[in-house]
């Protein structure tokens, strides 16, 4: 149906279209424009002369950018499999339980970490991994370990950020997988369990096709979130110690708002967007298969 200005459908859609244009499309176009220009916030008198692909060339030849991107990819490769595995394990446990009230309570409980904002997660992480009075060192003391300087050691700081991300987003994976498991026909599942007692066979041959769409969505959404992860890391470690947790989004923020080079930061952000799109296409191509 054609959407005319007088059509009610147009006016119902207009707020969403306007919000998308203002919040998503306009900033993207501004960033794309800035990436082809020299734009120094600290020197507005210089204007914004056109420099072509110079910002992109400078970015691709910047060792610090590649280091930050490498740390981000390492974080993605280590954290995402853990979240997927733990989320699938939790979903299978909830799916097998016969208590409806327990599943309902678990669903509500799983939403709590997801509803916590990134900045608050970072602040919680600073408290949990504090050297003097953090919960992490308190628990390790029962094992005769510590106290560890979680946020002062480069490796431990990286692990601490991983733990907080796993805590926050494993429930998201569990809920997505649980939704996929709920689509499996009960009769087919009961018959499969009678045929074989091995749950791995049931998971691979019967439940896997129903889990693949959710797995693809998890990988796309979580990869995009991790590549642009900023708030939790910045409030928790400020990218330190040194540059141990300076992920690419933190590095872009430093270039754009500490060194005031908006042109370079915009070029880096556009390259990050391209990388996210490429990863999404790869996930759809190699992970998702329609049953």
Automatic annotation (TrEMBL):
It is a multi-pass membrane protein. The chain crosses the membrane at residues 12-33, 73-94, 106-129, 156-181, 202-221, 265-284. Residues 69-283 form the ABC transmembrane type-1 domain. GO terms for cellular component: plasma membrane. Its main location: membrane. CDD domains: TM_PBP2 (cd06261). PROSITE patterns: ABC_TM1. GO terms for biological process: transmembrane transport. Gene3D superfamilies: MetI-like. It comes from the Bacteria. It is found in: Cell membrane. Keywords: Cell membrane, Membrane, Transmembrane, Transmembrane helix, Transport. Belongs to the binding-protein-dependent transport system permease family. PANTHER family: BLR7065 PROTEIN, SPERMIDINE_PUTRESCINE TRANSPORT SYSTEM PERMEASE PROTEIN. This is Maltose ABC transporter permease MalF.
């Amino acid at each position: 149906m054609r959407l005319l200005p007088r059509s009610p459908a147009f006016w119902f859609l207009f707020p969403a279209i306007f919000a998308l244009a203002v919040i998503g499309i306009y900033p993207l176009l501004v960033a794309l424009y800035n990436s082809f220009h020299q734009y120094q916030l600290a020197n507005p008198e210089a204007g914004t002369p056109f420099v072509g692909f110079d910002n992109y060339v400078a970015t691709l030849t910047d060792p610090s950018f590649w280091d930050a991107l490498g740390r981000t990819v390492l974080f993605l490769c280590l954290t995402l499999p853990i979240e997927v595995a733990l989320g699938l394990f939790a979903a299978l446990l909830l799916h097998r339980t016969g208590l409806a009230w327990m599943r309902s309570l678990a669903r509500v409980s799983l939403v709590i970490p997801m509803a916590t904002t990134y900045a608050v997660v970072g602040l919680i992480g600073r408290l949990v991994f504090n050297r003097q009075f953090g919960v992490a060192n308190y628990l390790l003391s029962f094992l005769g370990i510590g106290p560890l300087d979680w946020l002062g050691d480069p490796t431990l700081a990286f692990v601490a950020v991983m733990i907080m991300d796993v805590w926050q987003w494993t429930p998201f994976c569990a809920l997505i997988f649980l939704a996929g498991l709920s689509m499996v026909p009960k009769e087919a599942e009961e018959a499969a369990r009678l045929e074989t007692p091995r749950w791995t066979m049931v998971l691979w041959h019967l439940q896997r096709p129903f889990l693949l769409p959710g797995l693809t969505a998890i990988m796309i959404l979580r990869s995009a979130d991790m590549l642009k992860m900023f708030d939790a890391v910045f409030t928790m470690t400020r990218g330190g110690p040194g540059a141990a947790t300076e992920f690419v989004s933190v590095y872009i923020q430093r270039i754009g708002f500490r060194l005031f080079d908006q042109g370079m930061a915009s070029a880096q952000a556009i390259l990050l967007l391209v990388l996210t799109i490429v990863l999404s296409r790869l996930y759809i191509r190699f992970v998702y298969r329609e049953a």
